[in-house]
Inverse folding.
């Protein structure tokens, strides 16, 4: 933590800040930098809470120096975490394709989707049984019955079930049917739920809130890890911006940063982000080459009759074509590294050198 | 609901949309407007869910015509709702000043604040016992002990207690101590919690999520009202924008729109929005004359030692001065209407006319 | 400037950063703070451009410590700047009411508005002759003819003319007719225009861009001041956010911060921000008590027939009533300070003490 | 245009709206839809400007039905526009790689970059001679001298020059050196500049403003096309959002929508958007498979010594590796369509069918 003083801060004000740092167990060190005076907080003091020193007179800013999410930080596990879901990995360098309808609507619907996506090579089926909906009057899911259907199709087609848990009350029921517990964007800072899934030993797919910074997402994941559940997958699903042509704005740079900042696997959900079916395939392809460990795609036998989010669901034809693209790009991504690219190489483009 | 067709939509596509509307129980009516073809959906069909018609070929957009939150809509109670909290009203045209620390930290702290604000004429004490915090390592509140302290100061100083309920698990404990249950911004779409407070008969202060549109806030309130609890107060507390000079961006136009769109009382919380103590008083004053039914202000005996949000808490001196301003502006607001301003009056400025 | 090193930065990496700082003329000083290593850049090096040190290995962040807009900074003129427009001040503690139509549409229209607002006590008339419009097909203003009309009404009713300059080409023409040159939000970073108005000696009203941070606005003003024109008025007119219920989001906290951070007068334009006529008056009132030195309000004899922005223009009746409110609140704001509020006073609410 | 009436609108209010529509030359048609009354505006009336009908009593909303940018709309040229720059196409299905430094800094620097990128197969060199900078104190480019250097390297290495034009004053000088005139994000709504480049017959690369919606970008392009210059390339370069971990937020869904909504070629500029060198390559790859016609990448011989934007520039090694990826993905994208994917095909995944 660094305390930046105002340009006109007085000596007694500076001394008061130093005294307070000492009182909290730290050691203050003054640095006259080119554009002002900074007091560095050295020693064993906890950075959280130093923000309030901003209320002392003469203080301009309190700048944290490091992230406070120690468990999710890449440094905690530089080699990266692989979350294995009944034998199928997420985060091992391959690409996990998670597909299915927004909501389980009927036995016929979920069986048709499950059969189709499984034939396309998909191993992870998504589908909501408990649906959190903005309106109290919208379809809220088939609930218990939806969970039973998910269990059935999971068995029938050897699929791993990714389904949302809406609240602590229904957690144990959902956890029984789910292979991966999805915590939705609206629940990203539902701390009771985060702590509860943190006490389980089951993979969690944690979606970024639509108004949440990456740092807040990391902190939310830290809640889960700090309770002992280390199998967390992060998910970018679009953020709120001023642009209204799309439902949300898919932030693919977030995929790149999450991979860099944390050791957790990262999944992208372009369907919810863009909210327009024809725009989903190019964004799924983009997520793959941006480095996502997995992509979530909504598929429905008849999107124009879907009970929720039909506008963004792909038809079977559209999905089959996309699944081939995804596989092909995952292969591209996994191609052996080019031996000609070595650090410290001559600053000529290799092709050009080869041509000489 | 209006279905806007693409400029090049074909007759079979148009017919297919009309057929689907009929299938859903509505009556389609085609209108060739100046800039394209629109199909109006008439009759008794439920607007929710028509969005998926966007997946039919030739459809450009599905435009909802009305809000779907019938219970919170101003039309449901044009005269407005007054929420009365053990004798003290919010929404009656007066100004409810809600003040206190971010969190209850100790008996001494909460008693000092309660005594002081009560002497300043405050009737509503805010203070968190259960604190939802972004970081799992930050101070999470005194919990049960905090509730006991709130009950004690409430009795001692005849204050109404406004305190946050973080989750369904602790709801009954919090509801016993609270006069007003605060649902925080991060929980605005925690639907299990909304339904649970909806089943109680106790006032709820519902904060807008930092990434939530007004329409989503109205829907969240609709969850509470639709469960039978009509005593909801809406609260603007700042939204996420690109500006980083303030913690959030206080959206005072939201206060004006909430009063217009709904019949519920509206409160503003500039402390959390701006996150800088010296910027709080002018924004509190602004909220009063913008028409808020109440304002929330954080006060602490020693902000630079507060366990949370010290950077935005006012000292006692700062608060006393602000409380006087608030009273004075509330009086200004309640002054008798100027009899010279009559609808349809001559288009001259009254003063000017009087001067002639 | 502070260079924050990555937690695992090596000694050679740290040395390389220090060497580079020395090479640029600064003195590096290492500080081991509680959560990492920081290198403070001391001495006479220019902070701008140190950002690129982020490309050296082992560097996590480059944190600027101070604002680089020296001329607009409050510290450059702690007592504040008063911009005087042919005898009428903006920034002297009073309230400048700037009113008029979005665009000059006809002689009849502008004379009717000018006469009316002048009778309401207004001294500053706004009105566009050159209108920058998002669409090339929208009404672009009466141009030269509009300027002539503005000059005529200015003389007739002794009004100061605030009108927008769209580009360098028309600057000299506009400058002849205008008392205050408005630089619009879309031109906030049109640096050629900023430099050109900076070379004139005529007040400039500089609007914040809808996607611009406060710091960028300050830098834009710095362009004008650094060319020698010190008479700049800053204007908040709403920013782009995810909320679509209003046209833009009026950021009144920006008014408070601009007054704090700079010495320039600050004006708010709620009409353009909210874009809904009935929401304008409460937000104008709010801006006054938040500390704005002036407010801009759109008025039109018949808003539903306005050639631009009719949806947000007030009728004459609405404006007359608002003008009274503004005067009344400006008086409230200018009331003598309460002698009972003294720094370091006893921590009791004065009213309460008086009552004992 | 559709006029949505308030639920409680009276008959005289409805009649007044209809009368006004007739007065403007349109034909009103009333539709009682499921959730309210809508008046469709039929016939030859101009949609722009109907917004002001919102000021008539009883009106809830004025909804435009179609975009008003007729020239850039995909419908105007369904097959798409190919912009050919001295023999090299953008928008023909291939991938245009535009690379170079942020600014031209010296003869040595620009020659080294030009030689290197040209050896990597690049045909479009970017580099600024006139640099619009937020701060008046930052490096503003080599200006005239920079243009001379760009001409020289263009000739030497047979590169097409993409360089920014900052204002109308320097347009003719820049146009002489440039093969493609870049209009920067801050100038996207500098209408004088748009009109001026619209009168030339030289390709224009128009960057989206950081606070601009897609619709506003289309309107800005419409300004250029409506002056007769049809060779416009649109460019996504990141938008302002609440996320601060990246400089801007790259909106790749915008690339997909621009291709869908307009017939113009689309380029993405991940360097400026993300502002972090290591995050650039994955986002460039993503842009390619999302369907961009080109990508812009900043390259510098020594980024940590760059005079502007060094933090986001790639080194030569990094760029060479990325250029190979781009070529490889462009080939992937151009692979022949899979003959097995036919519309109306059996709803089985082709691979699965083949396997039976």
């Amino acid at each position: 933590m660094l305390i930046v003083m105002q340009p006109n801060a007085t000596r007694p004000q500076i001394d008061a800040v130093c005294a307070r740092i000492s009182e909290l167990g730290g050691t203050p060190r003054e640095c006259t930098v080119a554009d002002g005076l900074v007091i560095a907080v050295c020693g064993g003091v906890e950075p959280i809470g130093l923000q309030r020193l901003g209320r002392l007179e003469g203080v301009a800013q309190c700048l944290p120096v490091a992230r406070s999410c120690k468990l999710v930080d890449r440094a905690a596990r530089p080699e990266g975490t692989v979350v294995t879901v009944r034998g199928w990995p997420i985060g091992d360098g391959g690409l996990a394709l998670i597909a299915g309808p927004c909501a389980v609507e009927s036995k016929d619907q979920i069986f048709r989707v499950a059969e189709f996506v499984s034939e396309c090579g998909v191993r992870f089926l998504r589908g909501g049984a408990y649906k959190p909906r903005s309106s109290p009057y919208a379809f809220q899911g088939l609930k218990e019955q939806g969970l039973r259907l998910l269990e059935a199709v999971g068995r029938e087609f050897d699929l791993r079930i990714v389904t949302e848990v809406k609240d602590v009350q229904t957690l144990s029921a959902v956890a029984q049917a789910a292979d991966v517990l999805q915590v939705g964007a609206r629940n990203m800072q539902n701390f009771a739920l985060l702590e509860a899934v943190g006490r389980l030993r089951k993979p969690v797919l944690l979606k970024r809130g639509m108004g949440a910074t990456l740092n807040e997402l990391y902190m939310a994941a830290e809640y889960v890890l700090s309770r002992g559940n280390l199998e967390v997958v992060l998910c970018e699903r679009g953020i709120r911006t001023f642009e209204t042509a799309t439902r949300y704005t898919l932030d693919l740079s977030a995929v790149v940063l999450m991979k860099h900042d944390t050791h957790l696997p990262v999944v992208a959900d372009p369907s919810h982000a863009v909210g327009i079916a024809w725009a989903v395939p190019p964004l799924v392809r983009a997520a793959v080459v941006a480095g996502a460990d997995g992509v979530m795609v909504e598929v429905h036998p008849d999107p124009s009759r879907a009970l929720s989010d039909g506008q963004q669901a792909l038809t079977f034809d559209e999905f089959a074509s996309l699944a081939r693209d995804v596989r092909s790009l995952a292969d591209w991504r996994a191609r052996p590294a080019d031996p000609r690219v070595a650090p410290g190489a001559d600053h000529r483009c290799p092709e050009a050198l080869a041509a000489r």
